[in-house]
Amino acid sequence: MRIGSENSDESELATRSDAFGRFRLERADGRRWPRGADWTAKNRRLPPRSSVEPALELQLELGAPLDATLVRVSTSAGIPVSGAEITLSGPAFRAGNPEIGEQGTLELQASPMTAVSDPDGFLRIGCPPGALAHLDVLALGEPPVSRIFRAPADGEHLEIVLPAGGTLSGCVLASDGTPAAWVPLRLALPGLLPEQETRTDGGGRFLLSNIPPGPYELALAGDPLADSSSLYVAGVMGEGEERDVELRCRPEHTLGGRAERAEVPLQGWIVELQRIRTDLFPEQRSQRTDALGRFAFASYSPGSHYRLRLIDPDTGGVMSVQKVSAGSAEVRLEPRDSIGELAGLRGVLRSDDPEHPVVFAELWCDALGRRWTTLVDPSTSQFSFENLPPLSYRLRAWMRGGGPLDLGSPELKPGEVLRIKPRIEAPGSWRLHFGLPAGVSRERVRVLVSVHSLCAANPGTQRRLELDPDNTVQARLQPGKYEYSVLIDGVLFERRSLTLASGSRTEEFEIQPFVRVTIEVRPPRLLAEREAVVALIESDRSTDLRKIPLARGINRSENRFEVFLPPDARRIRLESGQGLVGEWLASRRPEPSQLISIALVETED
Prior knowledge:
CATH class of the largest domain: Mainly Beta
Largest sheet: 5 strands, antiparallel
Strand order of the largest sheet: 46-45-48-49-51
Helix content: under 10%
Oligomer: single chain
Structural class: mainly beta
CATH superfamily of the largest domain: Carboxypeptidase-like, regulatory domain
Strand content: over 45%
Shape: globular
């Protein structure tokens, strides 16, 4: 067993299992957990996992063999691709943060695995039959591909056909209409797909090839032009499409400003620009101010939100934080002369139920992108954070047997030692019993409960629950409101709400017979990155609409989603969060694996 430190890819041997498969970690620290830890044994993988409760015994189960699934890679013309590098990065349906496990654990996805195809285009990956997973494919001379797939049954192989790459060419003009000569350009692709770079010629012409179908962003790879204008273009490329465009740089695509103190320029200070609220195109850049304290970031996306941080080059301290969005004028960053005296947070976290005490507390500062943790004294229930910058924080805690607690967002003033003593209610006990139709085993069903997160900037994550032999899931949760999702074979079946109080609550969930189909969504325009599309399903036997969220910002070449429909489904209505709707009316009962294509249109209002 290997264990790695937080935010590090390095790991070290921690222990070895004995002849009975048992192991013991002597150096475990309840305030920390591994990130990127790698557990391997006998050619099988185990997702990194760590207990946040001292002295808890974990039952670890090995995953699929590394050669469980045979894959063949070919071009759109059917030619085998030799030397294709395929990275398996985990299940398609997963939280971006560590999941909260049933054993009082934080469970990360297994670190990515990479394999290379042989001369006949074949390779093997460690994905069990029927599982959903995500593949990134890189092959010389072919467009990079990012795919969600379902592993085939035993004895069958997965066929990956690389799409024909597109070509984007054209002319880049400065804001005055003259050609932008010898300007470096950057083509950004979603997620982990590699960027492409090129440079315009003397006449402002450029050429980018082997572009995969799907969304892209075209931007300047360097500084803004001499007239302070920049290029930013977002689009969707079709498979094999050849597109020639004329693009003009504009001043509004440059985010500029000054760093100064009492109107005196701050030269050589570091300004960080972080793009926030983004799933497809994460971005973080930095530069130093010039002699006049000025800074300018090229290719600012007008539809995105950003955070600017001003950092003292001598101390490395963050001296100013400011959020900016579309339409922002020139930004002025001025450091505080002093952040003031450091602050503190102390208090008592005593649970109403002594059997479920609070084990540790965590502070997260969004402005600094940093967290602090401390243990709660088991005898007094007291905790303490010292020497904190006077800023706003998010306070979370971990209750034994109850999971994460949200304790609010304290704002600390300079020199203040804030004392709190919130009431920690006893956790409630929730049981969900399933009625399963013929042909659906309990191993195919999983429940994900949305809970507060730890060890991450994102405030939410998921707690994964498996069915026991009685087809029941059980969990202890802090009183409050929750949402939970029921998945079958990794595909969302239904999402429901839950309100839980202290005490016990038992619910029934009857899974009716269903038909598994694919919905293809055809939007008329480029969707906003976080524009959500949901499916409202109406059937003959129920007056209630089933609401199934599909995705946000679906701008791929194939916007297809697996969905479970009741056999008597008669209507599907799609709605986006920004005025798009579409509808499908059944002329006959839906059939297994049926493709249902729905075009979205703009509503009049």
